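Retro notes (design track)

What went well: tokenization of the new backbones is finally stable.
What didn't: we kept losing track of which sequence belonged to which structure.
Fix going forward: every design gets posted as structure first, then sequence, in one message. First example under the new rule, 309 residues:
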């Protein structure tokens, strides 16, 4: 525990702009790990603010983003990437000098640019906790969401190292494993590990929905584990993912081009009956799965850890 008997928290007053899954999970995590920290918050959706109030997530729930940010030494934007610039401009009048400004977006170069343009002179340290579920809203959050998950910080060159260290300590206290990375490299890596898989999932599930009439409903009725995994990913927030693909389009298009080339090679192998090529490809990809389990980023339980029933 950080705070109370366990020591002072890295930040005394934390403002969360956006109280959905990620924002509410941060709030719950702060309650557990940093009980002496003061939480302030705002969400543009009045229903979300009402739900957050009922759940008691925030000490001070503001009706205005500038009021929420006033006096905070850490402000975290938990809003879609496309809304980041407007959200930042809305707190500019009340942002305290020296306050750390961060976010939780899935692409970092456009966020870094947007935040610096909207808040000139502010101490901006973008962050990306690689964690989430297909659910949304403040009621979907939970304190353990970040446990043993990576949180990547992407400060610009020359950023105050002590401030980066404080933000790293904050995420570590929430249970995350922290890495510092160049923003452009982050966007390319995430295009491979997150953005392309989501694009594939959206495509496969969309194709399956078109085939429902052809198969008379049997696609859903007889869904195997692989398709169920794709539907979980494809159930992610549409606004968030629209903004991610448009904001990180260059990296996504680069990786998508490579994927289409590989897909064409597999098509040719199947068409030509080249079993050796298929076997070699599947052997290499199987090794990647084992490495992910070894790193503790998933479990090797039967049926991928699904709960029966």
């Amino acid at each position: 525990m950080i705070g109370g008997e366990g020591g002072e928290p890295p930040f005394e007053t934390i403002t969360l702009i956006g109280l959905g899954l990620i924002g509410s999970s941060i709030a719950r995590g702060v309650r557990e790990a940093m009980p002496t920290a003061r939480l302030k918050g705002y969400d543009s959706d009045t229903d979300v603010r009402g739900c957050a109030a009922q759940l008691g997530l925030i000490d001070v729930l503001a009706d205005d983003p500038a009021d929420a940010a006033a006096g905070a030494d850490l402000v975290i934007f938990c809003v879609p990437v496309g809304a980041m610039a407007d959200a930042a401009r809305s707190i500019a009048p009340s942002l305290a000098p020296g306050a750390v400004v961060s976010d939780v977006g899935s692409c970092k170069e456009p966020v870094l640019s947007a935040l610096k343009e909207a808040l000139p002179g502010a101490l901006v340290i973008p962050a990306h906790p690689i964690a989430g579920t297909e659910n949304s809203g403040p009621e979907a959050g939970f304190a353990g969401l970040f446990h043993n998950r990576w949180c990547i910080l992407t400060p610009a060159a020359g950023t105050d190292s002590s401030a980066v260290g404080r933000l790293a300590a904050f995420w570590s206290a929430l249970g995350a494993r922290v890495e510092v990375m160049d923003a452009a490299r982050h966007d390319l890596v995430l295009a491979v590990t997150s953005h392309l898989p989501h694009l594939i999932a959206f495509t496969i599930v969309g194709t399956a929905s078109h085939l429902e009439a052809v198969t008379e409903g049997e696609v859903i009725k007889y869904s195997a584990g692989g398709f169920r995994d794709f539907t979980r990913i494809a159930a992610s927030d549409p606004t968030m993912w629209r903004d991610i693909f448009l904001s990180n389009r260059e990296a996504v298009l680069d990786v998508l081009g490579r994927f289409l080339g590989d897909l064409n090679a597999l098509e040719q192998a199947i068409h030509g009956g080249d079993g050796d090529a298929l076997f070699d490809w599947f052997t290499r990809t199987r090794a990647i799965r084992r490495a992910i389990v070894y790193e503790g980023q998933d479990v090797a339980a039967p049926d991928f850890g699904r709960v029966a029933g």
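Added context from the reviewer: The radius of gyration is 21 Å.
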